Amino acid sequence: MPGEEPIIALENVYKIFGPNPRGRAFDLCSSGVEKDEVQRQTGHVVGMRDISFSVNRGEIFVVMGLSGSGKSTAIRTVNKLHEATHGRVIVEGIDVQQLGGSALQAFRREKLSMVFQHFALFPHRNVIDNTAYGLKVQGIEKDERHEAAIEALAMVGLEAYAFNSTRELSGGMQQRVGLARALCTNPDILLMDEAFSALDPLIRRQMQDELMAIQSKLHKTILFITHDLNEALRLGNRVCILRDGKVIQIGTPEEILTEPADGYVAEFVQDVDQGRVIDVGKIMHPAVLLDTSLTLAECLDTLGKRRGGFVCDTDGRPTGMLTKTDAATALASGTTELASVLRTDFDSTTAAARFNDNYAAAGRGIPIAVVDDAGCLVGELEPQEIMEEMGRVEQLVDGFEREVFL
Ligand SMILES: Nc1ncnc2c1ncn2[C@@H]1O[C@H](COP(=O)(O)OP(=O)(O)OP(=O)(O)O)[C@@H](O)[C@H]1O
Ligand SMILES: [Mg+2]
Q1: Most exposed of 71, 192, 233, 348 (fewest Cβ within 10 Å)?
Q2: What is the pLDDT of residues 320-352, one digit of tens each?
Q3: For residue 194, what is the DSSP state?
Q4: Nearest ligand by distance to the CA of 25
Q5: Pseudo-torsion of CA 117, 121, 123, 124, nearest 10°?
């Protein structure tokens, strides 16, 4: 799990585009005048206003917003492709705005890699040379950089194509090369600006899966930009929503869904709300049953990778739930007895209930009991799976539409 150590921090960052960004446009903007009005009065465009957020080590932090909301501007201040008009950008303790010349070049080469929406591959170089490009710039010998490139290509499943021309690859494959190129220099930080937005939905989903698989191995710190809330909720440990250059909300996917900060976010969330087409029965799985005779340590073993398990009465009705977190906390403080740690405040649903009826309960972060008409336990839902399912729902809906039109 990502820690709480901030690797990237934006502190009250403003970016104003125009000939005199620190003049009247900034004064108006910082005193709260809206973007359109600033533009009307001064001809300057507000890219970002008073943006603060931090990205922790090992986290996928997603910045989401509509076109023009300032996402690219924000990511570009992190490697100083844009100079901030005001505020500070700190990356691993370095004040990025102070960097220039060779220090800035070295910082960009060594600390971070960027993946763009449109591949940005060199058409006249083959796959391996595209992948190894960052190492070549660093002056690494050919054998060594090819070895690293093959390793990076293997991570994205393309080692067999190392010596092909990039022109022979599909869009999805080209984007994989883009990702391999970013990984090849082994940077701590990946900056990904709409990296999957140009891909068709199926390939896009595969790329999301691959990124998550790679992340669970490499634990990079990833700042990911998207205009798609489904993608944001699927990938993000936390999501930051921008509008007109301003931060509207920062939160976990659960928080965004269950406590949208305002109507704007709520509207986005509504779009995601295609969960009405899915029954709980399709995504639930068998619950872990715990016996009251077990010790807490034995229960923890029984839970394995699951977040929680249930104790039922003789009729099979759930009477208590043990979460893994509760068990671990209790064990650490010397408790060994199951009964004292059982919760009774868990949520219940039925197999026929709709998936989106459970968003709020999922927001509590603990498993949900699925019961039949008689109240007997028939399965459970884990909050994380509800979030993951959201991405799949998007595919399903796409699938339905295709079937109808073909
Ligand atoms: N170089 C520039 N010069 C002038 N205005 C700019 C420049 N770059 C961005 N802007 C303006 O700043 C605002 C934010 O743009 P930005 O590119 O960050 O949006 P975005 O959220 O990345 O949008 P998209 O989803 O279309 O990529 C927009 O109003 C845009 O017109
Ligand atoms: Mg953009």
Answers
A1: 348
A2: 999 998 999 999 999 888 988 999 999 999 998
A3: S
A4: 1
A5: 170
Alpha helices by DSSP H, listed for 156-283, are 171-184, 201-218, 229-235, 253-258, 263-272, 280-283
What residue owns the CA closest to ligand 1's atom 19? 68
Tell me the pLDDT tens digit for each residue of 179-229: 999 999 999 999 999 999 888 888 888 889 899 999 999 999 999 999 988
Concatenated DSSP letters of 32-76 = T--HHHHHHHHS-EEEEEEEEEEEETT-EEEEE-STTSSHHHHHH
Residue nearest to atom 29 of ligand 1 (CA): 68
Residue 228 Cα, ligand 2 centroid: separation in angstroms? 12
* Mean pLDDT to the nearest integer, 245-268: 85
* Closest CA relative to residue 119, chosen from 168, 42, 179: 179
Which pLDDT belongs to residue 275?
Answer: 53
| Beta bridge partners of residue 371, listed in sequence order | 377
Going from N- to C-terminal start, the domains of the chain cover 6-274, 280-390
Pocket of ligand 1 (CB under 6 A): 17, 45, 47, 65, 67-73, 227
Domains 6-274 and 280-390 share a fold: no
Looking at all shown ligands, the one closest to residue 67's CA atom is 1
What fold is seen in the domain 6-274? Rossmann fold (3.40.50)
Count of all residues that appear for the chain in the document: 406
User: Is the model more confident about 49 or about 354?
Assistant: 49
d(C-alpha 346, C-alpha 364), whole Å: 9
Q: Which fold has domain 280-390?
A: CBS-domain (3.10.580)
pTM greater than 0.90:
no
